[in-house]
Design goal:
The chain is mainly alpha-helical. The protein has one domain. The chain is built from 8 helices and 3 strands; from the N terminus they run αααααβααββα. The protein has a 3-stranded antiparallel beta sheet. A hairpin with a 2-residue loop joins strand 2 and strand 3. Helix 2 packs antiparallel against helix 3 and helix 5 packs antiparallel against helix 8. It is globular.
């Protein structure tokens, strides 16, 4: 039982999700850090099972949850939220690679864009590009919705 609580398989496809989210949230505080932490839904999409839902429907639900939390950042803080810490340029690629484990190749570039949205650089520092994060998630959701619709059509 302890393994399912502390280290569920859908959060451990490589480096544990909590470790990646710690790096992604570093430099952000309060509700923004919480909302970024909900990227766990993207990490686990396609891996967590739920009775009554197909794996595709569960993946869509997970992405929709992630979209909700990124929209919350936009509603509360706007389109750019600055970090209090600098982040190394290699970190986004590293986290994105881990988030792509066991995900369809077709969405890897969107996952990479989503993660990089949290580490944009300007003269003022590191910031979140909220629009890029949302756009990336919307494309991922569309991929899974098209996959679902195609499989429904094939069943007819």
């Amino acid at each position: 039982m302890e393994e399912r609580v502390e280290h569920p398989s859908y959060y451990c496809s490589g480096i544990e999700c909590i470790e990646l989210l710690d790096s992604l949230c570093d430099g952000y505080e309060g509700i923004v850090a919480f909302d970024i932490g909900q990227s766990k839904y993207l990490y686990r999409c396609g891996a967590k099972k739920e009775e009554g839902l197909s794996s595709i429907e569960k993946a869509i639900e997970d992405i929709d949850k992630n979209i909700f939390y990124i929209k919350d950042i936009k509603k509360r803080k706007g389109l750019r939220v600055f970090s209090s810490k600098d982040k190394p340029s290699w970190l986004a690629q590293f986290i994105a690679r881990e988030f792509c484990v066991n995900k369809p190749e077709e969405i890897h570039s969107y996952i990479e864009s989503y993660i990089s949205a949290f580490m944009c650089k300007s003269d003022s520092g590191i910031y979140i590009d909220v629009e890029l994060a949302l756009d990336s998630l919307i494309h991922i959701a569309e991929y899974y919705r098209n996959l679902r619709d195609t499989s429904i059509e094939a069943e007819k």
